[in-house]
Specification:
The chain has 134 residues and is mainly alpha-helical. It folds into 2 domains: 85 residues, Multidrug-efflux Transporter Regulator, Chain: A, Domain 2 (Orthogonal Bundle); 39 residues, no CATH class. The protein is 52% helix and 5% strand. It has a 3-stranded antiparallel sheet with strand order 1-3-2. The chain is elongated and about 65 Å long.
Length: 134
Amino acid sequence: MRVPLAQSGPKAESAGIPDRLYFRIGDVSRLAGVQPYVLRYWESEFPTISPKKSGTGHRLYRRKDVEMVLEIKRLLYDKRFTIAGARKALDPKLKVPVRKDPARNGVQGDLFHAASPDLTGIRSELAAILKLLQ
């Protein structure tokens, strides 16, 4: 039975998830509105989706997996992220805090105005390695 989702967004979508321990791939497919082969592909692209396998080999998704599938669908279909962009957006280690500095242009400014390394030390080390190799 398809569960209608009245509102949009992660909070509304997780409210539409039935209160169960495990979901089969068909259940998740109906909840997310995508085909099962799409879910299997997303498993290979997003390591955060990791359904358990039953004794008969069926995928058993937990609630956190279903919530992650709904978030991935939102990023890919609604926000129009690429797979790589959605992967970066979901990885908490890669999240960079955005500074509100009027002198710089957000994160982009930080990337291009970073302090340059001391190239003289690197150059001398490379020259020493080259001398050893000759």
